[in-house]
UniProtKB/TrEMBL annotation:
Gene3D superfamilies: Ribonuclease H-like superfamily/Ribonuclease H. It comes from the Bacteria. It comes from Amycolatopsis taiwanensis. Residues 169-305 form the Tc1-like transposase DDE domain. This is IS630 family transposase. GO terms for molecular function: nucleic acid binding.
Amino acid sequence: MAEGQRLQRVNRTAKDRVRLRRAMVVLASAQGWPVPDIADLAQVSQRYVRQVIHDFNETGFDALDPKWSGGASKTIDDTTRTKICAIAGCDPQALDQPFSTWSLTKLCDYLIKTGVVAAISRETLRRILHDGGITWQTTKTWKASNDPEFLPKMRRVLDLYDNPPPDGRVICVDEFGPLNLMPRKGKAWRPVGRPVRQRATYTRTQGVRHMLATLDLATGRLAYRIRHRKRWPQFLDFLKVLRRRWPDERLYLVMDNYGPHKRPEVRAWCAANNIELVYLPTNASWLNWIECEFTALRYFALNGTDHRSHAEQNAAIADYVRWRNARARPKRHFAINSPIREPNYMINVA
């Protein structure tokens, strides 16, 4: 009776699944269940059931504890495992293979053919790669800057972010778009297997629009205009709007090297109106603080939508910007822990 009560407690409280399963087998046997029925209940073999009952009769409750032995010893040594991980990270074509990427099967065949291992299964290979920190990843692109003045320009921008001049205001400027009228993929909380469906479009007859936007670091607020084009006359008109908004301050405009930003007409007007144009290094748009705001705008205002007119889409953007500006805070601490902050940061290294 005492053993039965103890087995019931194990069945109720055991967290180890092996101990729980063995206690269930013994308790069912004590209640008179035949071995085939116990095997079906526990989803194990009849041989396993008989062995558990025999061990319990021999050693008592110690038979319920799993006897971990550490598994089989490794058949592939650590040096070979390191070599396998190195081969997996190589371009197959560099090893005279007629394909551009490995599959587990192709990598297994190559390892056996070249004598790295005598035999290996796909599951063993997968575990070796996992243990070695090698995962299946999508290739990404990166365009490094070849600007010979990369470091001086980058440090100038970072200095403006960190130490805004007392005589003016630092503003990040960029264009966002083109703004098409099209169904956009997005994310939403939905029942499993029932995603939101969007229509497909093949013709779009209402043209595109372009957003010219600024991020004021002192307040964290966005300002923008939506235009049919984004050439230098539209850009210059936008700068005049900024000049009227802050008439008595020197403006430091951080921007990329887009052609209209460098037009002689734009430069001459800025020089005459107390505006300094601070250009980013080439191919370094990630230094422009407004880029992350564009990512949020796309995610929260455009993704998952299907606007049928530019007026409708513009209204959605305006609603989001008003909501965001009502919660804006001054912008501080740009890329504090980034490698670009290190004194030995290397040019053209991502």
